[in-house]
Amino acid sequence: CMEMLMVINALILTTFIVLPNNGEKRNNRFFQLGSDFSKLVNSSTFIDKTPLIREILEEKIQKILITTPPSFGKTTNMKMLKKFLEIQVDKDGMVKKPINKSENFKLFTENNLRITTESPSIVVQNLGKFPIIFVDFKCDRDIRDYKDAVSFCKRVVHRCFKQHEYLFESEKLTEFERNLVEEWCDEDTTYDFEEIDISIGLKILSEMLCTHYDGMKSFALIDNYDSFILRANHTVKDRQEYDKIFKFFISLMSNLLKVNPH
Fold it and tell me: CA 31 → CA 24, 28, 52, 75, 140, distances in Å?
């Protein structure tokens, strides 16, 4: 993968809040707008932090880990990055052209977001130019043992393949690769994958994207990086079982990030 943004608990700088219509606090409680960047840009409480995109791209390093306390706009900013960087395709995987007519291009330019006015060259070089693997390890269920952990990671990989379901129709992939995409996207056949298949699943996806996009490397945006491991740490009583889970998780991440030229 070309770049990786790992996030522990929360990301960066921005909180979006909605007050009650009368402008007063209701029992001192605020209401979160949520993490949909496309909707937030049109809200009266939006704070433009798009220069963050420039800061990340200008770092020129392969892996960036950002840690901040919870509820600091983590997922919102991750989705902002995704909207800015991702290649928009139709259901058949064909790139929507021209880029300046795409929904994401209009989202940034028609709302006069700071990245477009302050760093136009960054926009020209990067907006809508990269395949994105958006990985979310948010875990709201108990991880009781190694089997639960493997099952959870299998679902994570499944959701990543679903983001690129169009690869099943890609003429640039082999028949074996297209069948593999179909199996990963199917909730029923997903359960047939073994541990080794899961541990290399995200790496395989990045390889397929690189092939489909004629050598273009992917950005991997990883949200809630430690959620799954923290959950296991609290619920798995056997330390040897937990160590086994941790090693499996490291294997999954290492295959995507350390031994992956795509």
Answer: 12, 10, 24, 16, 21
